[in-house]
Amino acid sequence: MPVSHETLWHYINLFRLNTRPFIQTNKNGLIYLRKVRVKNDPLGLNVKKYIYPKYNLYKWERQLSWKQLGYCGFESHLLSANPINRSEILQVKPYYNPYIINWDSQSNRDILQNTGLSQDGINLLQNFYALAGQNMYNSYLDYAQEIYSVDLSYLYEISGGLAKLPLSFYESFKWDKLSDYYPNIPVQCLGNVKLKMGAVVTGIYKYGDKNKIIITYTDSKNSNKLREEFDYIICAIPFSVLRTIQIDPLFSYSKMQCIKEVNYINSQKTLMAFNRRFWEEGGPDRRISGGASYTDLPITQVYYPSDHSKYYKAETSNTNSNSLSIPLKYTKSTFPYLEPGVLLASYNFNLEATRLGGMPYMQRLNLVRQNLEELHGLPEGYLEPFIIGFKTVNWNDEPYFRGALCFYTPEQKKLFSYASSLPEYDGRVFFAGEHISAKHRWMQGALQSGMKAANSLALECLKNSLI
Description:
Layout: H1 6-14, E1 19-21, E2 30-33, E3 36-39, H2 45-51, H3 59-62, H4 66-75, H5 83-87, H6 98-104, H7 108-115, H8 119-128, H9 130-133, H10 140-148, E4 156-158, H11 164-172, H12 178-181, E5 199-206, E6 213-219, E7 225-230, E8 233-235, H13 239-242, E9 246-248, H14 253-261, E10 264-265, E11 267-274, E12 292-295, E13 301-303, E14 312-314, E15 328-330, E16 341-349, H15 350-357, H16 361-375, E17 387-394, E18 405-406, H17 412-421, E19 429-431, H18 443-466
């Protein structure tokens, strides 16, 4: 959860949830590319010395660290526009300035090639910038949405698990809890919430002059087909799923085109539970607690849990709280690596996700284990006795998502961002979700668009009541 996502933090603070830093980098994290393994030192010297020779880089590229190359390729372009023009990156509007249109027309590969990077330089960066690197033919502007608001720096996580956030929403719906969360609003003005879990929407309809919206759905508990009438609705169904829901009469031509064409990418996460934390074994110069490792193997990225970071302290204080890339000192006599732990053994996107996530169960388990062993320099089969659990989420296979994340292809922001957000059925159907927002792929976009939709709905109600 980036500190820049103010709508998300509004709810975290409202629900009084405890947070802790999510460690992104660790000096003992590994980089394993083209069969060469090095530690992820803060200045990138190991990569320059040992991995660069494996790539056919230009002379000027060899003089820069991989982070400096990434800045040239992805971030430097934003400096060519003034702040007013840049601000449109995070806006949904009917027309955009020429800078936005230019960036919108280019893919991530286009922008890197236009920077002057060699093909091997681009191949190198693909491993460090997974979201962009595994979506090379999708819109650079869509990726710039994350760069501009510093989404991948200063991250936090909810102590005890992210599930506490949706559970807090659920608790806030209860009548006896309303005054706890909305102390400045009289309870009688808040109304009731009737939450229906397992109701799968099958159709959205508007009939005649009644100005009523009909929703048809099935009840997962008894398979009954049901219908209800509403004055207004907010539709937060991903377009990937809305495409197969019956809509009658059809929404506007532009909205139906959005539903048909807006691009979603796949993602997969594979988690492994171990009866001992092999990644935390060894001395201070070896153990990895928090942070990530990067590789060109099929698993692509590995993230280590941050919960044992409490056993470290920084030797210097001039660092931000969510980075442990500086030298560290161990503060307890016995590091608890014998405790069970869960490793995010693979996290990737798009084709990489589809290819790994689509493998048969046991083949995927074995491949992920083998990749982990190769990444960490362990003998084949070493980890097998320690594995006690395994779970893969492949979002293409999730029936209510059918794709993990909205990620525009070139020109889709110009074509679809504004049309996606407009209400339908004469202001009776509003839309929300990360795909509707200017902050794709994040809770921030989903929550912010939901707040905007709720406010727009309230204004429409007020307008109709005054007519």
